[in-house]
Each structure stands twice: as structure tokens, then as C-alpha cells.
Amino acid sequence: MSAPARKISTAVIGCQGLDVLHMMRLKVASSLLMAEYIQADVQEWNHQKVDLLVASIDDGKGQQVLREAGAKGLPVLAVTRKVLAGLPIPGVAYGASVREIFQQLRELLQQAEGGGERFLPRTLFRSLSDAKGKPSLLHLGLVRVMVDAPQRRITLLRDIPYENFLKAAAEPGWTLSLLSEEGGVEECLADAVSQHAFEDFCWRAASLSAEPLLVQDMQGLAQMRGWPEVETGKLPTHWLLPMAALMIRPWRPDQLALATNTSLDDIARIMAAAACTGLLDTSGNDSGTARASGGKVSGFFSRIAKRFGLNFSKGLQV
Predict the structure, then answer these.
(1) How many angstroms separate the CA atoms of 157 and 28, rounded?
(2) Which one has a higher pLDDT value, 66 or 18?
(3) From edge to edge, which strands make up the β-sheet containing 143-147?
(4) Are 162 and 145 in contact (CB under 8 A)?
(5) In this structure, are residues 132 and 151 in contact, taking their beta carbons and an 8 Å threshold?
(6) What is the mean pLDDT of the chain?
(7) Are 195 and 155 in contact (CB under 8 A)?
(8) Which of 223, 262, 261 is nearest to 245 (CA)?
(9) How confident is the model at residue 266 (pLDDT cuts 50, 70, 90)?
């Protein structure tokens, strides 16, 4: 088994006007970001380039820091004795715990990245981007799984209910290790409890997660290449119609949400699950996956359409 394959991002956190207590708590909170593969360096701010500024803003100097940071477009986390609800920027109360500071740091770094992946939590699915086409062992605390090289099967390595694995998959803090084909895989299989289709694991995890498994482009066209290998009864019922529509032709997410009366958040979660399992086609070309000869829609999708009172034979009509 090789050493963990980690893609570590670096962040520079500036600080200004903090007392000893809050400086200590900031440094501890910053060190906790390593669980998200973010190596944070805390520096006294002297107008150098930083990713985030943490500052006490209760005096005149703090207000000046705010103005300077605003002029630079720099995200600021305020430490203040003022009422937080009245602040124009994110803040923590004077005496905030390490956990409270950590949560704010993580959220602000993610926002500063502008929706990119650099500072997003290392869930199981984001960690798999480091697998490089090799079998991998992933663990989060006591939860351990093995994913095969083509990412078709997932092996559970702890005697824990399947649903617990599904819920944990979207939690931050996963570590990935690449496995050798010779001994590493065999060693893991010796601890195997059960195996499942990777598509089943992804789609069911997606249905339990409040957030999309991966960040998706919500502007371009997207279509599904095929129906996932998952028991339909395990998916949210209101997902079936947009999934079926994505099998018919490419859609823009906002148009699909409107046509199927589905929230944009649910559309994002569906698209992310499709992306995780290699079923999302963003080329914009109509693959006509669900159509048989003569342009007719297959019986499965016709039944879904009928259930929702729709007609797929001419696109998507009420």
C-alpha cells in the first residue's frame, strides 16, 4: 500500500489587532483546516497578499483595517464585541471558540474561491479525483471503503449499516491511499464486509446529502448517457421525472427545473450524482439515449411521463 495521495491547498490567513487569546485560537482553528487538505499559514497582516483577513474591528484602527481590506476586495472575518446581526461582514463574537472560528474560516475560504474546488471539504467523492485510475482505500474515522480502479464497485470494510456509509460519504475529512494491485487490494479484501455497485452508492449518497456531491456548471447544457445502476425505489420520487427528461435530450438546469417543477438544488444534486458515475454528458449533443427507432421514447420513460401527466414523445409537454 502506498502513502496517502493528497492534493493539499495552501492558504495564507492574515491577522490584525488580535489579543493573545484570539491569536492562539486562530492558530489552532487554522491547523484544523488540514483535515480539509488546506495548509493554512497565519501571518500578521502588513498589506501583503493573503486569502483571508481576521481582524479585531472594535476600535478606530480596526475600522481603518476594514476600509483597507474592502478597497483590496479582501474577505474579512471580524472579531468583535458588537452585535453580530448588525455587522456588514462575517464575524465571530469576542471569546469565540476554536470550533466557531474554524467553521467561519472554512466557509469564507470556500466563498473566496468563487465556487471552485480549491478549498471545498474533502468528501469521499472529491477525494476520488486523486485516485488516478488506480484502486484506492478511503477512510474517515472508523469508516473504511475500497473503490476499484474503474470505479464500478465499492467494498465496505467495516461492519456498519450501509446507510451510515452513505451518509458519511458526503462528510468532510476523508483520506485516500492508492493501493498496489498485488498486495494492497488483497489485504483490503480480507476485511471486506460487502460489495455494492459504485453507481448505487453514489446515487443513494446523493439522495441523502443536502449538497451536490461535486460542484456543477449550472449554465451549460447537460444530458444523461444512461440510467444509473440503482434501485429506483431508493431514489427520491421527485427525482425520477428530471432524470428521465435528462435521458431524452440535453437541458439547461434552469429550464429543466422549470419544466419538471423541480428545485434547482435538486437538479444540481442529480447532475452531480450523474457526474460522479460518468453518466453526465455536457457536450450539448443530443445522444437520443432513451429513443428507439422511429424517434419513439422507450416504454420505461413513457411510463414515468404518464405517471406525472406528461408527454415525452414531443420533447417535454404538459
Answers:
(1) 32
(2) 18
(3) 175-178, 136-140, 143-147, 153-156, 194-197
(4) no
(5) no
(6) 83
(7) yes
(8) 223
(9) very high
What is the mean pLDDT of the segment spanning 21-37? 91
Burial 106-123 (b: 16+ CB within 10 A, else e): bebbbebbeeeebbbbbb
The answer to whether the CB of 203 falls within 8 A of the CB of 273 is yes
Residue with cell 472579531: 79
Give the CB-side neighbour count of residue 302, counting CA atoms within 13 A. 9
Residues 250/284, Cβ–Cβ less than 8 Å: yes
CB 217, CB 203: distance < 8 Å = no
Helix (H) or strand (E) holding 287: none
pLDDT for position 297: 46
CB 166 within 8 Å of CB 205:
yes
Percentage of residues of the chain with pLDDT beyond 70: 84
Q: What is the band of 295 on the pLDDT scale with cuts at 50, 70, 90?
A: very low
Rounded to whole angstroms, how far apart are CA atoms 163 and 169?
10
Residues 106-115 have pLDDT tens digits of 888 877 665 4
For 169, residues 6+ apart whose C-beta sits below 8 A from its C-beta are: 123, 124, 125, 201, 205, 209, 213
Q: Which helix (H) or strand (E) holds 18?
A: none
Pairing of strands 52-56, 9-16: parallel
Q: Over the stretch 57-105, which tens digit does the pLDDT of each residue have?
A: 888 888 888 778 877 788 889 999 888 887 788 899 999 999 999 999 9
Specify the amino acid at residue 226.
G
The identity of residue 63, as a single letter, is Q
Are the beta carbons of 282 and 224 closer than 8 angstroms? no
The Cα–Cα gap between 283 and 286 comes to 9
CB–CB of 16/64 below 8 Å? no
C-alpha torsion sign, points 84, 86, 91, 94:
negative
